[in-house]
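Q&A log
Question type: sequence-to-structure
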Amino acid sequence: MRQAIEIISVNVGEAETISHGERVLTTGICKHPKAGPVSVGELGLQGDQILDTRHHGGKDQAVYVYRQEDYEWWSTETDLDVEPGLFGENLTISGLPGDMVIGDRLLAGDVVLEATSARIPCGTLATRVKDSGFGMAFRKAERPGIYFRVLNPGTVTAGDAVEMVECGSTSVTVLDLFRFAYETSHEAENLQRILDAPIAERIRDQVEVAFEATQKD
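Response status: OK
Response body:
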């Protein structure tokens, strides 16, 4: 029997200046739990600011979700003082499978989300947790969290029950995309498999470049 899926926290962030060592930047990564219902539209949660629009946000990466179980892992395996929103996620959710399939959907009230991509760590995340080596730790842990597009808007609230509907038409997982980001060689057949899935446009552009390179070899 599948574990019940529940929204633990709904997190929204405004622009904040953070620093670690000599690095100082203004970012929207600092998300904080929001009480009561929060509106979700095609570009994300109401009031949530995204400053680095080159790498974050947009319709295909409108909502970032992190598993509560993965936070528990970080708490056990590291010295991180974890709390909802630490990694910049909009929704902290318990009960999700560890490796969702791209195209799987989450239903929370009227809101319908579709999994599109994995989160790839950046220097901003390392600054947020005040650990210059955290990008490598995040890579090795393979617990990236999931980006979603919004298929149907509505509102979400902490404590909401969530239903997961499996895609069934693709086998490309979140970890497949996460690992792709670090691979130095690719097989055309696997890249085509990824391109056939409803992946986010940012990652699609990268996969298409890699696929074209395999055709020249």
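Response note: Residues 91 and 165 are 18 Å apart (CA to CA).
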